[in-house]
Amino acid sequence: MRPNYVRNDKEYRISKYLLHEFIHSKTMLDAEEGHHDVIQRIHTSFHNYVFVLENLYLNFKRMKT
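The structure assignment produced for this chain is given below.
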């Protein structure tokens, strides 16, 4: 895997999983000084504004159509 580049659905699912784990990690919680609401807003933003548009910016998905 290369940063900023995903070749197939498996790599994308792994990247998405790693992002989700990082957002909900202790490191992120410490950075937000224990504010779970901020973490939840970040999580919700990704689901509402990024993941819903993934067909527009994922090159490997656009090449299938």
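Interim note for the steering committee: DSSP finds five helices and no strands in the chain. Residues 9-64 form one domain.
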